[in-house]
Design a protein that fits this description.
With 281 residues, the chain is an alpha+beta fold. 38% of the residues lie in helices and 19% in strands. It contains nine helices and nine strands. It has helices at 3-19, 24-31, 36-48, 80-97, 141-148, 152-162, 175-188, 229-232, 236-250, and strands spanning 22-23, 52-55, 58-61, 100-108, 111-118, 133-135, 191-196, 200-208, 218-225. The strands form two sheets. The protein has a six-stranded antiparallel β-sheet with strand order 6-5-4-9-8-7, sandwiched between helices. A three-stranded antiparallel β-sheet has the order 1-3-2. Helix 5 crosses helix 7 (175-188). The chain is globular, with a radius of gyration of 18 Å. The relative contact order is 0.14. Mean pLDDT is 81; it is low at 69-74 and 260-281.
Length: 281
């Protein structure tokens, strides 16, 4: 699965999360321009992953979908008053590094979301809009930082879930090597993702540690194109300073997430170990 296909997948999941259900033609309009064959393959992959299920002519989120979590376990957006404090930090950091800067949150066992961002104008590479959700795909710099500070069960589940669908250059050849990479991120205190998409792209990410974290909830980082790896480490000091500031702002202002309240049995995917979704009324 290419980066473009992953973005399309999450647009479908987000749409179904908001709308409840959709027809094939609705999803074709959502992702236009897209061929019927490509959309059919995309939806088949999402069904295989346990994210989507089909009911006659309608598509809905599956009960096993990573996007389904109880309200007590997640934060879907920062309150406007809080963003008036976080955004100036990101703006100042972006101008200091001369790269677009964003705050991500882990919002479920295997999903993350952009909470706030400051994008610089062209030709700088921007982040997708605030509110955009991503799965914890193993190649993404922010996802790797969350997985490095998460449970072994979730890291293994995300690797196994996405490995068959990623291009060879976007994946570690074995889970053992992927685990070693995550351990290195945790030891060094930051993650670097460097690869070719439409052009060279680089993400550098540091954790935002809150005092009551059991697993990491927030991370801050930048995205850039046409940058040498040697330049990346010069941005660590302002990123770490931003992480400390953001931690002070967020501490006590966001819910304490509950990830992986029990360990999956052998061979059981991590999402199966999550608490059942609560229903209102």
């Amino acid at each position: 699965m290419s980066v473009a296909a992953i973005k399309r997948s999450f647009r479908v999941v987000h749409h179904l999360k908001m709308a409840g259900e959709a027809r094939f033609t609705d999803l074709a309009a959502l992702l236009a321009p897209i061929s019927r064959t490509t959309l059919s393959q995309l939806l088949s992959s999402l069904e295989e992953l346990g994210e989507v299920e089909r009911h006659g002519r309608l598509y809905r989120l599956a009960p096993t979908a990573a996007a389904i979590t109880g309200n007590e376990r997640t934060i879907y957006s920062l309150p406007p008053a809080l963003r008036t404090v976080t955004h100036p930090i990101l703006e100042r950091t972006a101008l200091d590094m001369i790269h677009s800067c964003a705050l991500f949150a882990r919002v479920g066992s295997s999903t993350m979301k952009i909470m706030d961002a400051h994008n610089l104008p062209d030709p700088h590479w921007p982040f997708t809009p605030v509110g955009y959700e991503w799965p914890l795909v193993p190649f993404h710099g922010f996802a790797q930082v969350f997985l490095a500070h998460g449970s072994e069960a979730v890291a293994r589940d995300c690797y196994l879930r996405w490995f068959p669908y990623l291009h060879e250059e976007l994946r570690a050849p074995t889970y053992r090597k992927f685990r070693a990479h995550l351990d290195k991120i945790r030891r060094q205190g930051y993650g670097i993702e460097y690869k070719q998409e439409l052009s060279t792209i680089l993400r550098v990410v540091v954790p935002v540690r809150l005092g009551d974290d059991t697993e990491l909830r927030f991370a801050v980082g930048f995205v850039a194109n046409y940058i040498y790896l040697i330049e990346a480490k010069t941005c660590l000091a302002p990123l770490r300073a931003a992480a400390r500031e953001l931690a002070k702002v967020l501490q006590g202002k966001v819910p304490l997430f509950k990830f992986d309240e029990r360990v999956p049995a052998q061979g059981e995917p991590a999402w199966a170990a999550r608490p059942a979704r609560e229903t209102s009324g």
